[in-house]
Amino acid sequence: MNEALIRQIAETVLKELRGGSGSDKDQNGIFTEMSDAIEAAKNAAKVLRALSLDAREKIIQAVRASCREHAGELAKLAVEETGMGDVAHKTLKHILVADKTPGTEDLSTVAWSGDKGLTLVEQGPFGVVGAVTPCTNPGETIFCNAIGMLAAGNAVVFNPHPNAVKTSNLAVRLINEASERATGHRQNVVFSVVKPTLAAAEIMFRSPDISLLVATGGTAVVTAILSSGKRGIGAGAGNPPVLVDETADIAKAAADIIDGCTFDNNLPCIAEKEVVAVESVHAELIERMTERGAYLASPEVIESLVKVVFTDKGALNRACVGRSAKALLHTVGVTVSDDIRCIIFPAAAGHIFVQDELMMPILGIVKAKDFDEALDMCVQMEHGNRHSAHIHSKNVDRLTRYAKAIDTAILVKNAPSYAAIGFNGEGFCTFTIASRTGEGLTSAKTFTKSRRCVMSDALCIR
Ligand code: NAD
Predict the structure, then answer these.
(1) CATH code for the structural domain at 241-424
(2) Is the shortest distance between the CB of 436 and ligand 1 below 6 Å?
(3) How does DSSP classify residue 188?
(4) pLDDT by residue (tens digit) across 194-252?
(5) Is 210 helix (H, G, I), strand (E, B) or coil?
(6) What is the distance, to the nearest Å, from the Cα of residue 326 to the centroid of all Cα atoms in its chain?
(7) Top mutation candidate among 141, 161, 233 for ligand 1, by most atoms within 8 Å of CB
(8) Which pTM value belongs to this model?
(9) Which CATH number fits domain 3-236+441-453: 3.40.50.300, 3.40.605.10, 3.20.20.150, 3.10.690.10?
(10) How many CB atoms lie within 10 A of CB 411?
(11) Residue 135 in contact with ligand 1 by CB distance below 6 A
(12) What is the DSSP code (8-state) at residue 316?
């Protein structure tokens, strides 16, 4: 046997052991090398392409069932692994994904027929989607992306957040097991890597086998995918303000804001991050909030919290993200009961807790002299992310003016922020809100490409 042949055999065996050449047995779609994950996804995309829509929908139904069944386990693991969030709320978020993420029914066909024939526009798969996911909603985003992307007919390669890799890869494994149960075939449909890194992401961004990239995360990752030269869907950072005017039901506004802000310890990107109230209701709003589990912090406590929440260099202390109000207060020597869900304080518009996206249950309540000033302040605080904003008001003209001025993908009126993703609200669920690139709340159809199919001079039967 010559040396070249021996080397070739050794390489093949090594590749097989690493799960390469599309053979990912015993790995449940999770590879050591990103390039092998992409190769396997490429093969899976061919298999998915050949499936009927009915078979595709059966996979989706099995994935939903798995998400529902493992909601508690995924929630618990995510909180253990990341140290962020609340198990009960995360469980609800997974159930929401299972129940309200659109499947194949989201895909539609447009048709024109006439003397010249029949023309259809259909929504076809891209093939392989490369998706980068956050640590704030790891299981939720993987399941939600998978349902939409698979319903669209794509295979998916994930590069999950390294701080949530166990939860994310458990979700990947569960989806593949569900798919196998639905089809009766050992064919993985979603893929990931053992150790997601920036280098792995770079391989994904450059791969000629991936034509659609979807990033759910902060500004850096969205910029990275948009610089790749491929089609990119960017679900980036937000800093949602809430405007409260004098026409609002103040007791309800207080309750809704505290409920939305504290959901999963403020991890959702859509959650209330600061409040601007007009002068005449500012004091009442604060008082009502304290009746709903808010702790009114003194200027000294807030000053101490600033030193904990931000490092000496002014960066966000990740150890504080997604912590409960009680745990945050404990870090500055304040002990409160479990009933305390949120930390509030009367804030200046320029306060760092107002201007920066904290992702923790701390709310600065800013005073504005009237609605016009409140509107300008909210637009400034949103920083042009065009992500989410909320308002409590019964004045329809003001609701309209606010909506036009703030120009966000999401605007919730007179409800907690989570109504935007179908939680106690109408409409479907998503955990990928394409704020920056304008697709808005993503669903199966977002992950398709438009294909026109023309039949000349026939099939018009009118
Ligand atoms: P993050 O930006 O730290 O990480 C998100 C993902 O991007 C991770 O997988 C990370 O490894 C990867 N990443 C970061 N920089 C990268 C780069 N330069 N190249 C390649 N990959 C890179 O975000 P996070 O802390 O996990 O999540 C919180 C942030 O995400 C917040 O800003 C929040 O508003 C935002 N978010 C937005 C949405 C949305 O739908 N718009 C949803 C969830 C979270």
Answers:
(1) 3.40.309.10
(2) no
(3) -
(4) 999 999 999 999 999 999 999 999 999 999 999 999 999 999 999 999 999 999 999 99
(5) coil
(6) 26
(7) 161
(8) 0.94
(9) 3.40.605.10
(10) 16
(11) yes
(12) B
